[in-house]
Request: fold
Amino acid sequence: MRSLIHLRQATTHDVEAIRAVELAAGTMFADLGMDEIANDPPPPRRLLRTAIGRELLWVAVAGEDSTTGDVIGYGLGSPMDGHLHLEQVSVHPSLARRGIGADIFRALECQAVRGGKRVSTLFTFADVPWNAPYYQRLGYQELLASAHGPELAKALLLERQADGDGPPRIAMYKELVATQAT
Reply:
C-alpha cells in the first residue's frame, strides 16, 4: 500500500528537511558525472524563510498527518517579471518518478493562478534526460531569448555564468489557466 502523500505550504519547521531533500536529490546529477551540480549547497535558510513568507514554498509530506509526516519533496517559486518562476522542485531520489514532483508543480501553479499570475517559467538543463523532456510533459515549452523579460534574462545569464562550462541551460514557460486554481 502506498503511503499517503500530502501537499501543503511549507512552514519554518520544514526548512532543515527541505535542505536534506535537496542534498539527496543532488546525487542524481553525480550519476551523470555532473559533480559540480551534485555538490551544490542546499538553498540558504534565509531564502527558504522568505519564500515561506511569500507563500511560494510547498512541500510534499509522507504519512498520515500532513503536519507531522516526513518532507519528501519541495517546490520553491519566486516572482519574476510578473510571473511565477519555479526556482527548484526536488523529490527525494528514493521516491522519484512517482508523480510527486508533478503534484508539487501543480500546487505552485494553482497558487500562482489564485494570485493572478498567468505564466510560469523555469530554467533547466537542455540535455539532462529528466529535465527539459519532463517539463515538456508537464506543458512547458522553450522560451526563446527574444521573449525573456528583463529579470528572467538577467537571472538566466547569472545561472549560465555560475555553471561555467556546464551543460547548456534554457528557459521554459507555461501558460497557466484559471481552471488550474480549482
Q: What stands out?
A: The first strand starts at residue 5 and ends at 9. DSSP finds seven helices and seven strands in the chain. Residues 5-181 form a domain with the Aminopeptidase fold (CATH 3.40.630.30).
